[in-house]
Design goal:
alpha/beta, eight-stranded mixed beta sheet, four-stranded antiparallel beta sheet, 13 helices, 12 strands
């Protein structure tokens, strides 16, 4: 993704956001190419925000046809599109949002794509995939050395997962009294460069940081950060949504089903898996309440516009920051509970011994 000089017309068009993140970041956006997988309500919001921000090229991939169920929360289609491919139905409405963005439709099955396919894009945003498919797409993106966002919603609940592999970004802030040092801040974050600039009589510090990420296959089995494991108070604050998502993904892997049915066998298996996942996370048993399990199961597979709008905006904003190399991105799992209006972020990574500790 090579930045090109932005035109005067584009500066006028994107004036408001250029004031937020600068001309250099906007130049990176206008040459960026993004792949969005699955065109449901969540992806509608993601694509809308990317296109309005001036992303250079967006490819939307989905091999499914529009059904009546799609009409409830998806604002880019109508009943006249029933039976038409989701992407082809939505594309004219997306194009009208910003004719400057190049749009491509891909109506093939995502599992037919080889790893080199993902090398064509600067970023992939995969929405509403089952765990096995998300895991496959994540592995292919890693082979192509390209960042991935995975996101999904189930009614009032949702998540965002980020695997940016290794990402460098810049934070600009007022120069502090105590000098910032090049150092390792955490197991995933390091300060790698520090510069300063003076504008309007103010000293601004420009800090470059590097974040390291884990693929979904590892993040999904990783413990909570140590500061949670050593504090019962913090454990009590971890939403059971994390447990239920892990149980759902394990259910999908074991049964090959997308969602549990209302059968006794499926509900019993899901409840058993949720109990096991809760124990693996070392969370207090009382936080996995029966009413939450019931609510989660009742919300599975549904789309609610305010939830998809919020999460779609979050995904797009984080992706824009990453492409523009500005601000700290999600590290690495955001959980959203619409009932509680909360969206905590957890850094879920495997625990490795320190480098200087011998392996036994």
């Amino acid at each position: 993704m090579a930045a090109q000089t932005i035109s005067a017309d584009e500066i006028a068009l994107y004036d408001r956001q250029i004031r937020l993140w600068g001309v250099k970041a906007q130049e990176r956006l206008r040459t960026a190419s993004v792949l969005v997988i699955t065109m449901r309500a969540l992806a509608n919001e993601v694509v809308k925000n990317l296109v309005l921000a001036g992303i250079g090229s967006v490819t939307i991939l989905d091999d499914h046809l529009v059904t009546e169920d799609d009409l409830g929360s998806q604002f880019l289609i109508s009943d006249q599109h029933i039976g038409t491919n989701r992407v082809l139905a939505a594309l004219p409405q997306v194009k009208a949002l910003n004719p400057r963005t190049s749009l491509q439709a891909d109506i093939e099955n995502i599992l037919s794509k080889p790893p080199e396919f993902y090398a064509l894009f600067d970023m992939t945003i995969a929405t509403d995939l089952d765990f096995e498919t998300l895991k496959t797409v994540n592995a292919a993106c890693r082979l192509a050395n390209k960042p991935l966002y995975g996101a999904g919603t189930h009614g009032v609940y949702g998540f965002i997962f980020a695997d940016l592999i290794e990402h460098e970004y810049v934070i600009e802030r007022e120069k502090p009294n105590i000098a910032t040092q090049i150092k390792v801040e955490s197991t995933t974050r390091s300060i790698i460069a520090i510069n300063t600039k003076k504008e309007n009589g103010k000293q601004t510090e420009i800090v470059t940081k590097r974040e390291l990420y884990s693929p979904i296959i590892l993040a999904n089995t990783s413990p909570l950060p140590s500061e949670y494991l050593t504090s019962r108070r913090r454990k009590l604050q971890v939403p059971p949504l994390l447990t239920c998502l892990r149980a759902l993904w394990e259910f999908q892997s074991l049964t090959g089903q997308l969602l549990p049915s209302n059968s006794h066998a499926d509900l019993q298996l899901f409840t058993t898996l949720a109990t096991e996942k809760h124990k693996e996370l070392q969370l207090p048993a009382e936080t996995l309440r029966s009413d939450f399990l019931r609510s989660f199961l009742q919300n599975l597979g549904s789309e609610i516009a305010p939830v998809t709008a919020f999460l779609g905006g979050q995904v797009a904003q984080d992706a824009i920051n990453v492409l523009g190399q500005r601000e700290q991105p999600i590290q690495n799992f955001l959980l959203f509970d619409g009932e509680e209006s909360k969206g905590p972020v957890y850094a879920l990574h495997p625990i490795f011994p320190p480098i200087d500790t011998p392996l036994s």
